[in-house]
Amino acid sequence: MTAMFRSFRVFNYRTWFLGAVISNIGTWMQSTAQDWVVLTELTDNDATAMGITMALQFGPPLLLVSLTGWVADRFDRRKILLTTQTVLMLLAIAISVLLLTGVMTLPLMFLFALAFGTTNAFDAPARQAFVSDMVRLEDASNAVALNSASFNMARLIGPAVGGILIVAIGSGWVFAANAVTFLAMLVALLAIRTRELLPRAKNRRSGGLAEGFHYVRRRPDLLVVFAMVLLIGAFGMNFPIFASTMALEFDQGADGYGLLSSVLAIGSLTGALLAARRDRARVRVLVIGACAFGVVSLISILMPVYWTYAVTLVFVGFSTVTILTTANGYVQTTTDPALRGRVLALYMAVVMGSTPIGAPIAGWVANTFGPRAAIAVGGVAGLVAFGIGITWMISSGRLHRHEEKRFMLSLDETRPLRVIDPVDEDAFAGAPSVAPAVTTPIRIDHGDAEPRPPEGPIVRNP
């Protein structure tokens, strides 16, 4: 088994991956249908209404972050996912029935978007943290990247199939098809061998999300990662608005819109597979990805015809997944396991919760100034995020002249961190006091490809 697919050695992860691919295909089919229904069936090409729908769907992770992270850390994540996936399946069935009977309205679609968002607010942090329950810490970054590959493999297929089905049989049946694909994930969750799941770190304190906030606040590297993802997520990743309005500008229908989403996924899948080859997630890769995203987005607005615009989306997708996969892997592998669910909930609130900020703005800009102007705003946001990242790299003192190569630079990286709770200090009685530290930079020598485990715990003093 190659290093790229090393997480597949674990039965539970293989099972999870297969169920996720099938379910994600249905999710992307439904996403394409929902966007097209709002844009063309329930409104007269109103991008603002589409932005409101996205805001309602992605707003709950931000509003409920104080609860969802605690739930992901406190309860059995497998049972949480069985519940959320069942609810999402029932919502898809309900929308299908309303569309097929001709009684769906825009206000009703807004309500369903809010219901999807609320359910996903609990699903997302549990799903992300569940990866760490199936694979070892040293394979977590690889598993996150393969999850992204699964997601984007589905994205390659789902939108194109969804666009064709909308034209062939109608949008209502696309929602019904998605409901069926949820069964694959439910079967996978039931087939997982619970005895082979890794034991979870316990946190005896009752600080809830406040403890997660406190942890992130003491980690400047995480604050930079969150800020970069917030900017790009809010203003640059409104692809349903960008792709659908650009498809209309090029006189394309639902199938043309679905094809753009699939083309975007070609680059996304490539980026995810390359991320799976890396031994660990690095901030410098995130910074480079932000720069590439900004530049390619600005290039895409210059494309004169449909096919040339579609080609640029390959590179947009590549840079986007490089950003998201690296950020996710970095958060997972450098966070105290006892707080991972809460920190991931904060991360998902940034990723998904940024949409309510940016989507209505992107929709308004697209309506007022055209879709190219909306894409330009996203490109500029990517360059600003790059500026934040590179400024931190320089000011933090982690960027140095290479010790062996005169004209090269090297960057200190962050090891996986574990913060021992104050209630456990008795276990270290007699040990020398260790000053509080938020990150542990290490010098990565040229050619160093294997991650090195921490030399010892970092004790957080009360």
In sequence order, what are the helices and strands, one letter per element? HHHHHHHHHHHHHHHHEEEEEE
Strands of the largest sheet, in order across it? 1-2
- CATH class type: Mainly Alpha
Q: What gyration radius follows from the Cα positions, in whole Å? A: 22 Å
Strand content: under 5%
- CATH architecture descriptor: Up-down Bundle
In whole angstroms, the N-to-C terminal distance is 45 Å
Q: Helix/strand/pairing class, anyone?
A: mainly alpha
Question: How many domains make up the coordinates?
Answer: 1
| Helix coverage percent | over 70%
The CATH homologous superfamily is called MFS general substrate transporter like domains
With helices defined by DSSP (H or I, 4 residues minimum), what is the helix count?
Answer: 16
Give the low-pLDDT segments.
415-462
Counting DSSP E segments of at least 2 residues, the number of strands comes to 6
- CATH fold group: Growth Hormone, Chain: A
The shape is globular
Largest pleated sheet: 2 strands, antiparallel
Question: Quick check: average pLDDT?
Answer: 80
Transmembrane segments: 12-29, 49-67, 88-116, 160-192, 222-244, 256-276, 283-303, 309-331, 343-367, 373-395
Protein name: MFS family permease
Subcellular location: Cell membrane
Keywords: Cell membrane, Membrane, Transmembrane, Transmembrane helix, Transport
